[in-house]
Specification:
With 233 residues, the protein is of the alpha+beta class. The chain has five helices and twelve strands.
Length: 233
């Protein structure tokens, strides 16, 4: 009888230890997923020419991207939702980024052991993913800016493959090379938390929808008059 009681107590203690271990692992994973907090420059190299392409701020799953092509605003990405917007602070509007910039699809926090899952999610958000799964193949390791990188080859369902150099500690790609040789690089990294205010929408900002605008135009007198006008002979 005493042996049975002792065995029961030991089994219960072992169960509690396993639960505690799982809890610690889950907390550790959550902390790791939110570990990336930095700011950096983005450069694009085509051939032998490298040019500045923007500024990047990362706080957990949120990314702010500023580019010279869209100087009147910035891109705001929340990889956890996922969501990607282009924000125009002066106009107090924001809109779905869709395919405005490949940065919003590629420069996002990743699981180093399964990077294709997030890349595929962002491609779907942009309207590029029709079905099927991306494939990621680990091709080796490299060192960039004194840090160890995991090298992967990502193959989308449709479109060209790409090579990615992923910083395991930051859980973020620091270099991406497309099949045409174009290289996107994250450089001059400062590992310090950017201000949370950088990732907020402007006060009283409204979402702009091109589809809603088209629908409003269709309901307007101008659209109706144009549709009822007899065609010219």
């Amino acid at each position: 009888m005493k042996t049975m009681v002792k065995d029961g107590i030991l089994a219960a203690l072992c169960g509690m230890m396993r639960i505690a271990a799982v809890g610690v692992a889950l907390v550790g994973s959550a902390v790791a997923a939110e570990a990336q907090q930095f700011s950096a420059d983005v450069a694009v190299q085509r051939g032998a020419v490298s040019s500045p392409a923007g500024r990047l701020h990362v706080l957990g799953s949120k990314i702010r991207i500023e580019t010279p092509e869209f100087a009147d605003g910035f891109f705001l990405v929340d990889a956890a939702k996922p969501a990607a917007w282009f924000v125009r602070p002066a106009a107090r509007i924001f809109m779905d980024a869709r395919q405005s910039s490949e940065f919003t699809r590629l420069l996002v926090p990743l699981d180093p052991d399964d990077p294709c899952r997030q890349w595929q999610s962002m491609a779907h958000l942009a309207g590029l993913q029709e079905g099927g799964d991306w494939r990621c193949e680990r091709t080796g390791e490299d060192v960039i800016q004194g840090r160890n990188m995991i090298m992967v080859r990502a193959v989308p369902v449709a479109g060209p493959a790409l090579l990615g150099w992923i910083d395991r500690e930051r859980r973020f790609p620091l270099r991406i090379k497309s099949e045409d040789g174009t290289v996107i690089s994250v450089e001059n990294i400062k590992d310090e938390p950017p201000s949370a205010a950088l990732f907020e929408l402007p006060p009283r900002a409204r979402k702009f929808s091109p589809e809603e605008l088209i629908e409003q135009i269709k309901q307007s007198d101008v659209w109706i008059a144009d549709q009822t006008r007899e065609p010219r002979p």
